[in-house]
Amino acid sequence: MLPDKKRQIAALISVVVSVIVLFWKLKAYYATNSSAILSDALETVANVITSFVALFAVKLADEPADANHPYGHGKAEHFSAAFEGGLVFFAGVTIIYNAFQFFYAGLQVQNIQTGVEYSLIATLLNLVVGWYLLSTGRKEKSPALRASGKHLLSDVVTTAGVLIGLGIIYFTGFMWIDPLLSLLVGIWLIYDAYKTMRINSGALMDETNDELLEQLAYAIEKNRMQGVIDIHNLRMIRSGNFHHIDAHMVVPEFWTVEMVHEMCHEFEKAVVKAYEFDGEFAFHTDPCQQKYCAVCPVEPCAIRKVKFKESRLLTREHMKLGPQGTE
User: Fold this and answer.
1) Claim to verify: residue 97 and residue 180 sit in the same structural domain
2) How many domains does the chain have?
3) What's the sign of the alpha-carbon dihedral 13, 15, 18, 23?
4) Do 134 and 115 belong to one domain?
5) Coarse DSSP helix, strand, coil percentages of the chain, rounded to the nearest 5 percent
6) What's the gap between Cα 186 and its chain centre?
7) Is residue 191 one of the residues assigned to a domain?
8) What is the pLDDT of residues 275-289, one digit of tens each?
């Protein structure tokens, strides 16, 4: 099965299961009149909406690059994940508001055992599908599926907390625990939503991601080839599961254009293969101009001015900077 089909099937499964989970959580709420279970159901409403958005985003992201979108459509996945974070944030605020409403109304929780049974069905579905989406998102390098998977697993933790709280109410009769659980759920959702929005809004704005650059630097250093004297001015554009990287590469000035082209081509293939995401490089090649002799191991070299000492380590911090010769 093609990777894009796997991603689309995973997104479709997320839509179907989210609707089923919402059905069971609403049944649990109407059976118990529990503020905490209502909070859990409101979060699932957000899941249903965002799963539809994620399905659309994954399909759009799989469209090839065209004249109007030369870098492809991958950012649609980041938009989907950021939108999911925003909707969950709103759900968290709504849940906190409802928690205070339930607290002051003093409503009684009922039929706890039935509500727990319904919620357990929903939780098991979320657990299975959450792991599936997260593993598929990682394997297929999909930000939208990873965000959906993480949120469903977070939902499992939230529901588990709600069920524990209902168990305490069942044995103690302390009804004030119910709105307190809602309040805690709302706070947790706001925190989780902020993290999701922060990560994906950064990708939409092409913010530097040091963790990804560290992974890229490792792949570059591991696959370094003869003639790669130095790399600097490294930049990255993230477009879903595809990353566009441009940088300046210092090469021996006596190499022919054909030699440089062949080396860059093989180097790019090796680095992309070792990197976690798919991608492409655009190298601006700079002649060494005899300024890098101390860190250049290329031999034979008829123009060397300084004896070679040791190769320069191509770290994340170094490659983000401008040119740094040794003379």
Assistant:
1) yes
2) 2
3) negative
4) yes
5) 65, 10, 25
6) 22
7) yes
8) 988 889 999 999 998
Other CB atoms within a 10 A radius of the CB of residue 229 amount to 24
Q: What's the confidence (pLDDT) of residue 220? A: 96
Residues 10 and 69 sit within 8 Å (Cβ to Cβ): no
Instruction: Give the domain extent around 252.
Output: 210-320
Backbone angles phi, psi at 74, to 5 degrees: -60, -25
128 lies in some domain: yes
Tell the residue number behind the tokens 């005899």, with chain if given: 290
Q: Are residues 147 and 32 in the same domain?
A: yes
Q: What's the rounded Cα separation, in Å, for the pair 97 and 87?
A: 15
- Name the pTM for this structure: 0.73
Cα separation, 48 vs 5, in Å, equals: 21
Please give the average per-residue pLDDT across 72-85, as a whole number. 87
Cis peptide before 300 (omega within 30 of 0): yes
Quote the CA–CA distance of 250 and 227 in Å, as a whole number: 8
Report which secondary-structure segment, H or E, holds 214.
helix 210-222
